[in-house]
Design goal:
Distance between the termini: 24 Å
Number of helices: 14
Structural class: alpha/beta
CATH class of the largest domain: Alpha Beta
Number of domains: 2
Strand order of the largest sheet: 9-10-5-11-4-1-3-2-16-17-18-15-12-14-13
CATH superfamily of the largest domain: Putative sugar-binding, N-terminal domain
Number of strands: 18
Shape: globular
Largest sheet: 15 strands, mixed
């Protein structure tokens, strides 16, 4: 099976989000954890998941280029750089520097940038990113503990991160369809622009943008813009019709559990719902800033509670508590403490027979996956938009990695009712 689409994701939940979109489009997809050291799995799309969103810029660039080399060596026809639908970054990067490095490596001179995901309320209009009916900087993302987003104008945000130039392709052009979008991108490239932020407010806009991107060496954005990519390969005869068979996983077994580290409004709401429906432990990291002690407390609490009803263990907290913890320990140390505690908790739960695990939060997911020794994830059916079940190898575990902002309020319960095998 030839590798058609090679993908580089800047965090683990974003990688599964993208893979889920591609599977729904009929592509087989495998997520690889970290820069691969051997042959890539056999699939239409391979997504290399990095923990680079909040890494130092130089590290993020180096790892992304190494991932790109592995994908090109395997024959990838197109490269996709995946970042969050809320464009999580700082003024230093890492979206701009990584994209710059990929543009240079691929010698393509130009790439589109589109983080939209209308199904989850992420749209771009006049270059401004909205979360639902609120501008990005008024959506709660301005309080993100690691990548606070205080500017909704993506032309400005990306412009501050890149050595190139950024232009908007407005909604009026997008509404004219793929041919008009393609002409606009060609014109910008020929005029020396490096990036185009592209407006989109509906799924059809994203499908049209994806069609217009056929033949582009590099596509950057959220998972939504990948909606139109499988059809490009199908038109050329490279991708066979598969339908739902691309998403079948082995049957589930083992106890059910949820580990949450995200402090997003969506995750906090999901924890609130879980309190009334499942055993739920909310760790007080500020009162006990010790990863080993937090893990011991959680695993002791879970003893005797594991079964088909998920146990929910959360270190999530509202903005004021996060700020207090960061003031006490420092931002990086506070984040590392939570990640280490939750990774140890996940290890302990799996050792106690958990075979179905939901992890909430990008940084938390990265730490948990690495602690469990996961090397690849086979992508299965979607639970909620952007969040599929996966089958983790070599640990033989069903794993769902949820971006903090994604999922319905009852996500932590409904996830375990989604069938993964016919």
């Amino acid at each position: 099976m030839p590798l058609l689409l090679g993908c580089i994701a800047d965090d683990f939940t974003g990688a599964t989000d993208l893979a889920s979109m591609l599977v729904k489009g009929g592509m087989t997809a495998v997520q690889v954890i970290g820069v691969p050291t051997g042959p890539l799995p056999d699939a239409d799309a391979v997504i290399i998941a990095l923990k680079s969103r909040t890494a130092p810029v130089a590290q993020a660039v180096t790892e992304s280029l190494a991932a790109c080399e592995a994908l090109l060596a395997a024959g990838a026809r197109q490269i996709f750089f995946k970042y969050c639908s809320t464009f999580d970054s700082t003024d230093e990067g890492n979206i701009g520097p990584v994209a710059d490095a990929l543009v240079k490596r691929l010698d393509c001179g130009f790439a589109l940038a589109n983080p939209c995901f209308p199904t989850n309320g992420r749209t771009v209009f006049q270059g401004h990113l909205f979360v639902g009916d609120k501008l990005l900087n008024e959506s709660g993302m301005e309080n993100h503990p690691l990548t606070p987003m205080k500017d909704a104008n993506l032309v400005r945000v990306l412009g501050r991160q890149t050595t190139g130039t950024v232009k908007l392709i407005p909604l009026a052009t997008v509404a004219e369809g793929p041919a008009a979008i393609r002409r606009a991108m060609t014109g910008l490239k020929e005029s020396g622009w490096r990036y185009a932020i592209i407006d989109a407010v509906t799924d059809q806009h994203l499908i049209d943008i994806g069609e217009a991107a056929a033949g582009q060496a590099l596509v950057t954005g959220g998972s939504g813009v990948a909606m139109g990519l499988p059809a490009n390969f199908r038109r050329t005869g490279l991708l066979p019709e598969r339908g739902e068979s691309a998403a079948i996983l082995p049957r589930m077994q083992g106890h059910a559990a949820v580990v949450a580290g995200s402090c997003s409004r969506a995750t906090l709401g999901q924890i609130g719902f879980a309190r009334d429906h499942a055993p739920t432990l909310e760790l007080d990291v500020l009162a006990m800033p010790d990863a080993a002690a937090l893990a011991a407390q959680a695993l002791d609490w879970a003893t005797g509670k594991l079964g088909d009803t998920p146990v929910v263990i959360a270190a999530s907290a509202p903005p004021e508590k996060v700020a207090a913890l960061q003031a006490k320990l420092g931002r990086d140390a506070a984040g590392a403490l939570v990640e280490h505690a939750l990774a140890a908790i996940a290890q302990g739960l799996v050792a106690r027979g958990v075979g179905r695990l939901v992890v909430a939060g990008g940084e938390t997911s990265g730490s948990v996956v690495q602690a469990l020794g996961v090397t690849s994830l086979r992508i299965g059916p979607e639970i909620d938009p952007g969040v599929p079940w996966t089958y983790a190898s070599p640990v033989n575990l069903h794993l769902a990695l949820k971006s903090g902002n994604f999922g319905a309020r009852d996500f932590f319960l409904k996830a375990f009712d989604v069938p993964v095998h016919p």
